[in-house]
Specification:
The relative contact order is 0.10. The chain has a single domain, classed as UbiA prenyltransferase (Tetracycline Repressor, domain 2, Orthogonal Bundle), CATH 1.10.357. With 324 residues, it is mostly helical. It has 13 helices and no strands. The termini are far apart. It is a multi-pass membrane protein. Its main location: membrane. It is found in: Membrane.
Length: 324
C-alpha cells in the first residue's frame, strides 16, 4: 500500500513538473521567436548598410594574389584551408570596418542626399552608438586575424585600417577620392600576397595599381548620378567638378591604365596565354560598361554592380586556369 502511495506521489510530481515545463515553454518560445526576429532584422539592416555581396569586388583579387604567390613560392595554387578562412575573415572585417566608418562619418551628407536618405544609418534603424561599436569590433577582428597570419600582416594592419578610414575625408577636399577608394580595394591583392609569402612582390603592386584605376574608373561613372547633389554639397567628385563628358573620358583613361597595369602584372608574374586572355576579357567588359552608361544613366547600377562583379570573377578564373 505504501508503495502505491509513493508511486502516485511520484507520478503526480512528474505531471506537475511537466506542466511547469510546458508553461515555461509556452512563455519562452514567443520571446525566443521575437528575439530571433529582432536579430534577423539587425542582420538585414547591417547587410543593407554595408552590402556584403559587394565583397565580390575585392575577394577575387585577394584570391588571385594568393594563388599566384602560392604557385610561385610552393609550386601549387592551393595555399591551405587556414589561409583561405583567415583571408576571407580579413577581407570581410576590413570592408565592414571601411563601409561602416564611411556611413558613420557621412551621416550628414547621406541625410541630405535623397538617394541615401533611406540608409539604416540615416533613418535610425542603426543608432550611431551601435554603429560605432560595429566599427570597433571589425577593426579588432581585422587586427587579431592579421596577427594569426604572419608578422608583416600584423605590422601593416593598422596602416591599412588608417587608409580605409581616410577615404571618407578625401571627397571633402580632393577629386582624387575616386582613386583613394581604388587604393582601398587595391590593397586586397597586396594583402593576399603578404598572407601567403610574407613579402610584397612587384607583381602584387602592379596588380594593386590595376585595381586602383579599375575601381577609380567605375566610381567616377557611379558618381555621375550624384553630380548635381555633389555640387550643391560642395563635394569634390570628378563629375561635380568637370561635368559628364569629361568624367566619361577620365573614366576611360583610368580603365585603360588599369588594363595596362594588369598586363604588366601578367608579365611580372611570368603568366601565360590564359592570363592575357583574361585581361582581354576584362577590357571587353569595361568597354561594354561604358557603352551602357553612355546610353542611359539609369543603368549605372547595372554597370556598377553586375558587370564589375563579373569582371573580378572572370579575372580570377582566367588566372586560376593559367596557374593550375
Amino acid at each position: 500500500m505504501a508503495q502505491g502511495v509513493s508511486f502516485r506521489k511520484f507520478f503526480v510530481q512528474i505531471i506537475s513538473n511537466l506542466e511547469l515545463f510546458l508553461l515555461f515553454f509556452d512563455t519562452m518560445v514567443p520571446k525566443i521567436r521575437g528575439e530571433m526576429a529582432k536579430f534577423k532584422e539587425i542582420l538585414s539592416d547591417i547587410n543593407e548598410l554595408i552590402v556584403f555581396k559587394h565583397s565580390v569586388f575585392a575577394l577575387p583579387f585577394i584570391f588571385t594574389a594568393m594563388i599566384t604567390a602560392s604557385k610561385l613560392q610552393n609550386g601549387s595554387v592551393w595555399f591551405g584551408w587556414k589561409l583561405l578562412f583567415l583571408g576571407i575573415l580579413c577581407a570581410v572585417s576590413a570592408r565592414s570596418f571601411a563601409m561602416a566608418l564611411n556611413r558613420y562619418l557621412d551621416e550628414d551628407i547621406d541625410r541630405a542626399n535623397p538617394r541615401c536618405a533611406s540608409r539604416p544609418s540615416v533613418d535610425g534603424r542603426i543608432g550611431r552608438g551601435n554603429l560605432l561599436l560595429f566599427i570597433i569590433a571589425n577593426a579588432v577582428v581585422f587586427i587579431a586575424i592579421s596577427a594569426l597570419i604572419n608578422p608583416l600582416a600584423l605590422k601593416l594592419s593598422m596602416p591599412i585600417l588608417a587608409a580605409l578610414g581616410g577615404y571618407s575625408y578625401f571627397k571633402r577636399f580632393s577629386e582624387t577620392a575616386h582613386l583613394m577608394l581604388g587604393f582601398c580595394l587595391g590593397l586586397a591583392p597586396i594583402a593576399g600576397a603578404i598572407a601567403v609569402s610574407g613579402t610584397i612582390p612587384l607583381w602584387s603592386v602592379l596588380l594593386c595599381f590595376g585595381v586602383v584605376f579599375w575601381v577609380g574608373g567605375f566610381d567616377v561613372l557611379y558618381s555621375l548620378q550624384d553630380m548635381e547633389f555633389d555640387r550643391t554639397a560642395g563635394l569634390y567628385s570628378i563629375p561635380a567638378l568637370y561635368g559628364k563628358e569629361a568624367s566619361m573620358f577620365i573614366s576611360k583613361i583610368f580603365h585603360a591604365v588599369a588594363v595596362l597595369f594588369w598586363l604588366l602584372f601578367c608579365a611580372a608574374a611570368n603568366l601565360g596565354f590564359f592570363a592575357y586572355l583574361g585581361v582581354a576579357a576584362c577590357a571587353t567588359i569595361l568597354y561594354f560598361e561604358h557603352r551602357i552608361v553612355r546610353s542611359d544613366f539609369s543603368k549605372i547600377d547595372r554597370a556598377f554592380f553586375t558587370l564589375n562583379g563579373y569582371l573580378g570573377i572572370a579575372f580570377f578564373a582566367f588566372i586560376f586556369v593559367n596557374l593550375f
